[in-house]
Amino acid sequence: MLDAIIIGAGFSGLYQLHSLRDKLGLNCHLFEMGEEIGGTWYWNSYPGARCDTESHAYCYYFNKELYNKWTWTERYPGQVEIKNYLSFVAKELDLLKSISFSSKITRMDYIDNSNSWKIFLENGKVFLSRFVITAIGCLSKPNTPKINGLEKFKGQILHTAEWPKSKINFKGLKVAVFGTGSSGIQIIPEIAKEAKTLNVFQRTANYSIPAKNQSLSNDIKQEHKYNFDRLKNISIHNRHGHPWEHSNTPIQKSNLDDSYQTLNEAWEKGGLSFRDTFSNINYDSFANSVVSEFIKEKIENIVNDPSTLQNLIDFDHPFGAKRPALDTNYFLTFNKKNVRLINLKQTPVDEINTSGLKIGGEYIHLDLIVFATGFDAITGSLLKLNIKGKDGVKLSNQWESKPKNYLGLQIPDFPNLFTITGPGSPSVLTNMPRAIEQHVDWITKCISYLLENNNKKIEARHEFADIWLNMVEDEAKKTMFLKTKNSWYLGTNIEGKPKGFIPYSGGLNKYTNICNNVANSNYKGFLIS
């Protein structure tokens, strides 16, 4: 029997494997469904796939020597470079010998009488382990919408989250893209460069900030390495885990002229720091309306066609209520003659057939359909593991009404199972490597505590999980996140999924202190035996 099984070979899994195997000396193994290192960056290999966190922050900070050995080439790392970085880390830390690829887990059962987990793989192999740590990411179960007749289409159907490894040539093709979230915003300009026609089907208009991506000069590369300790310290105290200081200045009616000037400077700089230009953008309706209108005006100055423009700025939510997106020429792309935007709220698709689709009395011929329609986020990746806990309780039943958890780290009735960046943690609201490192360090310290005290089992208590869910909800009420009816943060993009704000929005810095206090009080809220 193994001491620990880790599921997933992305940022979370690699660091957790290193921590348990090399720091605690445990006998552990990692199983990865894909054929290579990469996690979400193995699957999301579509044209334009790029991280929206700057490269000097989208990496591990736990080892300064490791940080300095790698050199990023762009302000925002592309999919290939991120995947190469993770492969570099795996080789540097000699992790590959403890990883099995092409190993899809189909079922997990907790065995009460032996206090162990039984892991079933698709290839028929079965493993036993004392601890299991899921490192499967928050965005790893793709969501494909149900459209009448989709199965009849004879052309190619692709999803950005399951992109083929062979190059797709769009030249001369009639293409449809469904979805204008982060993935859609990235892939649409790339397809538009080659396709004969590109029809973009938008359900919800989305705010987007210019990325202003660029190659990094040698001076900037060296500056990032020289400032490692400072960047790490700032990130720890940043609510989103990014290496910049928060503004302490709110937008007020008395300072609007200065506010517009500051917003303009932030827009020209580009990047996610735009949302931190002022202290109250995500908390005050007036401040948010100023920023939302500012972004609208920027889009109005880019898009030529009045009808297309109105659809692109037909926002039904405040800025930041949904995941903020960054783009390179997204809005400018709609000025191209081969690109057309169709508003699905105004004109739903009637049906898809063998060679195209019918919509609003029109027939559109298609060669290729691309779904950039996101994921069954945060909970979906865990539910697809088919997990059974104590007394055979199914996770799917436990979460039928809401994703009950404690700190996003453990689930009541599922002993010795830890969930890195699980529901109820800051996860998708942060720079993920910082949230991941915080969780891995906490889990490693917790397992070390259990071993040192000769404890066999740890399990979240139901009453503390209930309290935590209320805290997650209370924090969300302070923000703009609940000012929208439809968001994958709320689970509304998935039919039948319980509705409610899933991640903790109080800030990674505040959350870290909460987790540390729990650990320092002998893991208050957990049953240990």
How would you characterize this protein structure?
The chain is an alpha/beta fold. The protein has two domains: 293 residues, FAD/NAD(P)-binding domain (3-Layer(bba) Sandwich); 222 residues, no CATH class. 31% of the residues lie in helices and 17% in strands. It contains 16 helices and 20 strands. The strands form five sheets. Strands 1, 2, 3, 4, 5, 6, 17 and 18 form an eight-stranded mixed β-sheet that branches. Strands 7-16-8-9-12 form a five-stranded parallel β-sheet. The protein has a three-stranded antiparallel β-sheet with strand order 13-14-15, with no helix packed on it. A hairpin with a 2-residue loop joins β14 and β15. α1 runs parallel beside α14 and α14 packs parallel to α16. It is globular, with a radius of gyration of 23 Å. The two termini are 20 Å apart. The relative contact order is 0.14. The model has no long low-confidence stretch (mean pLDDT 96).
Question: What is the gyration radius calculated from CA atoms?
Answer: 23 Å
Shape: globular
Low-confidence runs of at least 5 consecutive residues: none
- Main β-sheet, in a few words? 8 strands, mixed
Structure at a glance:
The chain is an alpha/beta fold and 529 residues long.
Question: Which characteristics define this entry?
Answer:
FAD/NAD(P)-binding domain, 5-stranded parallel beta sheet, 529 residues, single chain, alpha/beta, 2 domains, 8-stranded mixed beta sheet
Which helices and strands occur, and which strands form pairs?
Elements lengths: L1 E6 L3 H13 L4 E4 L8 H4 L20 H6 L9 H14 L6 E2 L4 E7 L4 E6 L4 E9 L21 E4 L14 E5 L3 H11 L4 E6 L5 E3 L7 H9 L1 H9 L19 H14 L15 H16 L5 H7 L12 E3 L2 H4 L5 E5 L5 E5 L2 E4 L2 E4 L2 E4 L8 H4 L3 E2 L6 H4 L18 E3 L12 H21 L5 E3 L1 H16 L30 H13 L5 E3 L1
